[in-house]
Amino acid sequence: MFEAAVTSGEVQTLLEPWTPWWKDRRCLILDLNSEESQFPQVLQGVPALSQLTKSQPSPYLMSHLVEVLYCYVLVMRRYNGDTESESHEVVNLLLDVSDVFHGKVGASSPRSNVNAAIQRAVQKSCSRQLAVCVVSDVVCILELQQRGVELALSHIHQLFSKALADAPGFATKSVKSLCLKASKKIE
Question: Any idea what DSSP says for residue 94?
């Protein structure tokens, strides 16, 4: 019975459609950053990159950022915005699909990095349709400029922190290490 409802699409009428925060322009209003907000909490006190290092940013920084945003949007769509109940699965998928969190340089263009991430997503049992469709969501976040990127990166940091806090035994030492390194990169 349930399988028939899924196959026919009837089950979709039972699910409340999820609207991503990046589709709501109210996220651009800075004082919506409260505990009750439907938007991610922006990390406070994060110094500017220029304060962290005197070196020039990596020429791959934009490509890496686009890949990280792609992976974030993919998991948000895959879990229909419900990252709270399955935080360790969300983080594992983020780590599985992203080369950046593993410290790999990857390609020099955002397009190449996203294409590689799409391939990894499909290998990790995401549908090709989902893996390709989320690219437009990355564009939406980038169109929100700095605010959109801050919200997304802050939420990724929260996802890693929650996964580590909720289920300390969910990961091997290497996955915990990756989570901590990724969390630091996001900060």
Answer: H
Contact of 99 with 141, CB cutoff 8 Å? no
Which residue matches tokens 């290490």?
177
From the list 93, 78, 77, the residue with the least C-alpha distance to 19 is 77
Positive or negative, the CA dihedral 50, 56, 62, 65 is negative
DSSP per position, 108-165 = SSHHHHHHHHHHHHHHTT--HHHHHHHHHHHHHHHHTHHHHHHHHHHHHHHHHHHHHH
CA atoms within 13 Å, Cβ hemisphere of 78: 24
Cβ atoms of 162 and 87 closer than 8 Å:
yes
- pLDDT at position 187 over 80: no
Of 146, 155, 158, 143, residue with least CA distance to 24: 143
User: So what's the pLDDT on residue 4?
Assistant: 57
In which band, very low, low, confident or very high, does the pLDDT at 150 lie, cut at 50, 70 and 90? Answer: very high
**Dist. CA 28–CA 18, nearest whole Å:** 19
- Count CA atoms closer than 13 A to 56's CA, side-chain side: 3
CB 39 within 8 A of CB 21: yes
Tell me the angle at which helices 173-186 and 145-166 cross, rounded to the nearest 10 degrees: 150
Mean pLDDT within 22-50: 79
